[in-house]
Amino acid sequence: MKPHVYVACKIPDETESYLAKHVQYRKWEGPGAIPYEVLLEELAEADGLLTSGNKIGLELLSRAPKLKAVSTMSVGYNHFDLDAMKERGIIGTHTPNVLDDTVADLILALMLAVCRRVPELDTYVKQGQWKKGDNDVLFGLDMHHKKLGIIGMGRIGEAVAQRAHFGFGMDIVYHNRHRKPDAEHKFGAKYAEMNDLLHEADFVVLMTPLTPQTRHLFGRNEFAQMKPTGIFINASRGPVVDEEALTEALQQGQIFGAGLDVFEREPVQPDHTLLQLQNVVTLPHIGSATAQTRNDMAMLAAENLVSALLGADPQNVVPELRK
Ligand code: DGY
């Protein structure tokens, strides 16, 4: 008998056809995100779950007695309770690599949007504020030949460094748990302690995954060390940053601006103070959101799940759950 899979997120037809060949599946067809209670009911009989962001914790696992594998269609897996999954022997997989270039492109877009004030000046033109003689009110900051600080030099960090170094002539400085000799060689990247990086960099790109250790890694102390012309970009996970501290830093001109694809709470509330500030460019967590990349992620997530359920070694078990 084919294993039972529940698909809790939208996936393309091609991925469904692949799943249909290997497993029996049911899927969430309602509008919006699946309600938690519905997910719990659906998991009563499931051997595998294909998800994108549903919290996989003790309660859910206790209601899913047959569950063997959870495959998330994302590279981030901070929604996995790793201890609970380990205890239950659940295989947990994610989708690294296939999204690196797409996310890196978006990070460069945010950097440019903030330093050249693109959304703000787009509104300026559309609202008819552009007058002959406008000059320094339109000035931004250069990106080319500036120094880029990358915190978390993983695959996406490297893809950002490559674009910034070869495309924009930027010097790269990075901070990471381990030195990356390869990045040092390829992009002339210089390793620095966090404080030194914050003092030196014109752009700070945060790429750290969210773990209990990195929650609010970036707060008042970190923003205070950045240059007043510094630009801060977060496209990893919102809770790595203390948003109150970021708001203060932006309001007080401690930094020039910020580009955010992620927030502590998503969707961000429309009345959030950050959204009232002109020196912030915001996006709705779209790092990997192109049709091509999301299709690739869905297929990889499905392949990971099928391998896990059919007893083969899935390629992309999250590091903390590898045997
Ligand atoms: C991921 O895959 O973790 C990304 O944040 C999704 O855009």
Automatic annotation (TrEMBL):
<dbReference type="Pfam" id="PF00389">
    <property type="entry name" value="2-Hacid_dh"/>
</dbReference>
<comment type="similarity">
    <text>Belongs to the D-isomer specific 2-hydroxyacid dehydrogenase family.</text>
</comment>
<dbReference type="InterPro" id="IPR006140">
    <property type="entry name" value="D-isomer_DH_NAD-bd"/>
</dbReference>
<keyword id="KW-0560">Oxidoreductase</keyword>
<protein>
    <submittedName>
        <fullName>Bifunctional glyoxylate/hydroxypyruvate reductase B</fullName>
    </submittedName>
</protein>
<dbReference type="Pfam" id="PF02826">
    <property type="entry name" value="2-Hacid_dh_C"/>
</dbReference>
<feature type="domain" description="D-isomer specific 2-hydroxyacid dehydrogenase catalytic">
    <location>
        <begin position="10"/>
        <end position="318"/>
    </location>
</feature>
<feature type="domain" description="D-isomer specific 2-hydroxyacid dehydrogenase NAD-binding">
    <location>
        <begin position="108"/>
        <end position="287"/>
    </location>
</feature>
<dbReference type="InterPro" id="IPR029753">
    <property type="entry name" value="D-isomer_DH_CS"/>
</dbReference>
<dbReference type="InterPro" id="IPR050223">
    <property type="entry name" value="D-isomer_2-hydroxyacid_DH"/>
</dbReference>
<dbReference type="InterPro" id="IPR036291">
    <property type="entry name" value="NAD(P)-bd_dom_sf"/>
</dbReference>
<dbReference type="InterPro" id="IPR029752">
    <property type="entry name" value="D-isomer_DH_CS1"/>
</dbReference>
<dbReference type="InterPro" id="IPR006139">
    <property type="entry name" value="D-isomer_2_OHA_DH_cat_dom"/>
</dbReference>
